[in-house]
Design a protein that fits this description.
Length: about 130
């Protein structure tokens, strides 16, 4: 069945991996966005601190699903090296997120959630590249 190939079976096909990467990204972003919103509106944390914590939670979820479901082969035998490289890419994405949030929210007066959506587009491109 076609869904077996797209959702269950290990695959080296770029199209299948891109599809799964997109699903994982949407899920991780939903968790990130929900936590950001909760931390700012309920816990009353600063939006930049909340964004950093939420992003790191989303990044961790993304990593776990990518290594267990999206990519069938590991690029590095040493998982610590692999996670370190993933984290470097992710932390760069965090920097981009913080900059876009700050620019959108403090400089242009947008709601932090709208700024976060703008950052999604930029960071998703960075992360996949």
């Amino acid at each position: 069945m076609i869904w077996q190939r797209w959702l269950r079976q290990a695959s080296d096909e770029t199209l299948v991996q891109a599809f799964r990467f997109t699903i994982v990204g949407i899920f991780a972003f939903a968790i990130d966005f929900a936590y950001l919103t909760y931390a700012v509106t309920v816990l009353r944390w600063n939006y930049l601190i909340s964004a950093a914590v939420a992003y790191l939670i989303g990044l961790s979820i993304n990593y776990l699903f990518c290594v267990s479901w999206v990519f069938s082969a590991r690029r590095f035998q040493n998982q610590s090296v692999e996670y370190l490289l993933f984290t470097v890419i992710g932390v760069t994405g965090l920097g981009i997120t913080e900059f876009v949030l700050w620019t959108g929210t403090d400089l242009y007066g947008l709601d932090f959630r709208l700024s976060k959506l703008f950052s999604l587009v930029i960071v998703a491109g960075w992360n996949f590249a």
